[in-house]
Amino acid sequence: MSKENHVNYDYDFSSTDFLIYMWNKRVPLFIVSFLAGIASILISFSITPKFRSTVVMFPTTSTSISKNLLADNYSGRASMYEIGEEEQSEQLMQILNSEEIKNRIIEKYNLMEHYGIEPDSKFPMTQLYAEFSSNINFELTQYLSVIIDVLDADPQIAADIANDIASLVDTVYNRMLKQRAIDGFKLVEKEYNAMVINIEELEDSIDIIRSLGINHYEAQSERYHEALGRAINENNIKAQRIFEEKLAVLAKYGGTYTVLRDQLQLSVQRLSRMHQRYQEAQIEAEQNLPHIFIVDSAFKAEKKAYPKKSIIVIISTLAAFLLTLITLIVAENIKKKVKA
User: Fold this and answer.
1) Could you give phi then psi for residue 213, rounded to 5 degrees?
2) Do both 328 and 274 map to the same domain?
3) pLDDT, tens digit (0-9, with 9 covering 90-100), for 103-119
4) Domain coverage including residue 276
5) 76 found inside a domain
6) Burial 107-129 (b: 16+ CB within 10 A, else e)
7) pLDDT in tens, 36-71
8) Residue 173 counted as domain residue
9) Is 211 in the same domain as 282?
10) How many domains does the chain have?
């Protein structure tokens, strides 16, 4: 084919013509793609490599620890030893994304300096949080586990941050629950102590009446009346006077004794039930059990995870090739229109 025929070839850009067109334009396409590949290689070497560390964990159930451990008739479906469900996993994600965890990690590892952000720059905190979000991510998987994924130029720091975030989950959880549990325990403790004092007062009052010889009103009343009857039948004046005096004491203090005794029995029963609540509230206020199950802890990575030089080179080269091809096609169409 002559050069003239090559120049005047009219492309309609069907599949065959498109391949012919690319072949005829192979020189500029190759040059641009080659230069883009070389540039992407140089750029990839200038990017600071980062290492990835990951923690995989599951949330625990939100069941009451005290009832699980102490209650004899606990009928709750969930056990404290079971893995949580979707609701607990979503709650865990909220905890991980809390400002408290972010700020503690930022402060502990001095991430402002670590990420090379100038405190005097225009928006230092915005830059810091953006860098934090790009390097530290949390993911809820289809299995309801939660992944903490940390990228950092220092592999040991990446592992330490991931493990510290997992540890901080329990700190935040316990802080949220602790104050409410302590307030609840104080209310139960106040009621419990009041009931103990009331029982002690009832026992003191009953002891005073017992010192008068009343130990069991119903049985003593029955026996004294029987003894008085026999004394009357036997015309035993002295015995008759003794039992009349005892019955008089029973008549005077027996009613009070009965009321106090019944109150004491009810109070002791209430105290027994309250003691169960007291123990449960105390456990809730003092417990520091973990709220997560760690499946995999983070460790120091040996190979960098970012950047992937091969992917950068392939994507950059392909993008340059396509952009050059589109540019040539557009230029070809513009020439046709100009000539027309």
Assistant:
1) 105, 10
2) no
3) 999 999 999 999 888 88
4) 182-286
5) no
6) eebebbebbebeeeeeeeeebbe
7) 878 777 776 666 678 899 999 998 876 555 555 555
8) no
9) yes
10) 2
Could you tell me if 263 and 329 lie in one domain?
A: no
Q: Report helix, strand or coil for 52.
A: strand
Task: Please work out, in degrees rounded to the nearest 5, the angle formed at the alpha carbon of residue 324 by the alpha carbons of 322 and 327.
Answer: 110
Contacts of 87 (CB under 8 A, 6+ apart): 62
Residues 260, 327, single domain; the answer is: no
pLDDT above 70 (res 122): yes
Same domain, 261 and 327: no
Rounded Cα–Cα distance for residues 57 and 149 (Å): 12
Report pLDDT digits (tens) over 187-218: 888 988 999 999 999 888 888 888 777 777 67
> Average pLDDT of the chain?
80
Q: Are residues 201 and 237 in the same domain?
A: yes
Instruction: Using the structure block, give the residue that is written with the tokens 């009857």.
Output: 229
- Based on the fold, state whether residues 317 and 261 are members of the same structural domain: no
CA atoms within 13 A on the CB side of 227: 17
Residue 315 belongs to a domain:
yes
Tell which residue, 245, 228, 278, has the closest CA to residue 66.
278
Identify whether 148 is part of a domain: no
* Helix-helix angle 26-46:309-339, to 10 degrees: 150
Question: What's the mean pLDDT in 329-338?
Answer: 76
- Residue 280 CA to residue 275 CA, distance in Å, equals 9
- DSSP annotation of 48 reads P
Q: Is the pLDDT of residue 172 over 80?
A: yes
Say if residue 322 is in the same domain as residue 261: no
d(CA 81, CA 281): 20
Three-state SS at 221: helix
Q: For the whole prediction, is pTM greater than 0.85?
A: no
Place of tokens 């991931």: 162
Give helix 86-96 / helix 155-210 axis angle, nearest 10°. 110
Distance (Å, whole) CA 93 – CA 139: 8
